[in-house]
Amino acid sequence: MPLLKDLIEKLQWLPGVGRKSAQRIAFYLQKMDTTRVQELTDAIMRARTKLKECSVCHNLSEREPCEICVDGGRERDRICVVEQPSDVMVIEKTSEYRGVYHVLHGVISPMDNMGPEDLRIDTLVKRLENGNISEVIIATNPTTEGDVTAIYIAKLLKPLGIRVTRIARGLPMGSDLDLADTTTLSRALEGRSEL
Predict the structure, then answer these.
(1) Domains with residue ranges and CATH for the chain
(2) How do residues 60-75 score in pLDDT, each as one tens digit?
(3) What residues pair up with 114 in beta bridges, in sequence order?
(4) H or E, element range at 75
């Protein structure tokens, strides 16, 4: 079955999809109504061809500039720096943050040949030089690469006199203290806030 093997192989290109998951998806697609398969294919192609990188914040959008950058209700004096466009979606779901964003499209990672020059850091600095920004919130992931990127950006921005903060990290809701590793627990204590 070369067609099925080819489909399974191509599905494994997707992040987080291993061989077994790819097999399940391939067989599921074979059972789906052909109209629904065509709708899925069309949605993928539309998103791939119509979504562009915003020239201001580098988020993905159908508009130029993106919906968030043109939203007059946003607090323009705060910029939240994230790794990927998907991070914007996650933060927006909280409905807690009303500032604007800056998407780096990666992190500093020597193992992946990604240096500061490969990220959208230069345009972040230009945004800060051109506007009245009071705070930059760094919301990179709590990984070694995310931490290195956060420290690099903070050191770069400090001389500009702009307040640079990092999102707090700690224990997820519903977890038990005895199940937490020491690094997570230490960061939870460091990021504590007053009640």
Answers:
(1) 2-50 (1.10.8.420), 53-134+144-163 (3.40.1360.10)
(2) 999 999 999 999 999 9
(3) 109
(4) strand 75-82
Q: For 103-118, write each residue's pLDDT tens digit.
A: 999 999 999 999 999 9
CA angle 91, 66, 156 (to 5 degrees): 65
Task: Give the whole-angstrom CA distance, residue 137 versus residue 97.
Answer: 11
Structure-block tokens of residue 105: 């499209």
Question: Contact, 107 vs 146, CB < 8 A?
Answer: yes
For residue 30, the SS3 value is helix
**CA 143, CA 35: separation in Å to the nearest integer?**
42
Distance (Å) of CA 149 to CA 60, 88, 90: 21, 17, 20
Beta-bridge mates of residue 82: 103
Counting beta carbons within 10 angstroms of the beta carbon of residue 156, is it exposed (0 to 12), middle (13 to 18) or buried (19 or more)?
Answer: middle
Distance between CA atoms of 130 and 165, rounded to whole angstroms? 20
154-173 residue pLDDT tens:
999 999 989 999 988 776 77
Contact 146, 169 (CB under 8 A): no
State the greatest distance between any 2 C-alpha atoms of the chain, in Å, as a whole number: 63
